[in-house]
Amino acid sequence: MGTMGLALPWETRISFVPREREMRVEPSEDLTVRPIETAAPAARTLPVSEDAELAARCRAGDLAGYERLYALHGARMKNVARNLLGNPIDAEDAVQETFLKVQRGVASFRGQSSFVTWTYRILINTCYDARRSRQRKKEVANDDREDSPRPEPRAPGAHPALRMALERALATLTKHQRDVFLLYEVEGFHHAEIAGMLEITETASKNTLFQAKRNLRQMLEPPRGSTVAGAR
Amino acid sequence: MNIKCEDRDRIFENGTPAEWAALEAHSASCLSCAEELRGWKALSVRARELRDYSDMPSLWPRIERALTEEAATRKRRAERWGWLSVGFGLSLGWQTAAAAALVVILTVSAGWIYWHRTGPAPIGDQSLLKSPALAEVERAQTAYEQAIDKLAAEAKPELENPATPLQASYREKLLVLDSAINDLRAQAGMNPSNAHLRQQLLAMYQEKQQTLQDILEEKR
Question: Nearest residue on chain A to B72, judged by CA atoms?
Answer without folding.
Answer: A61
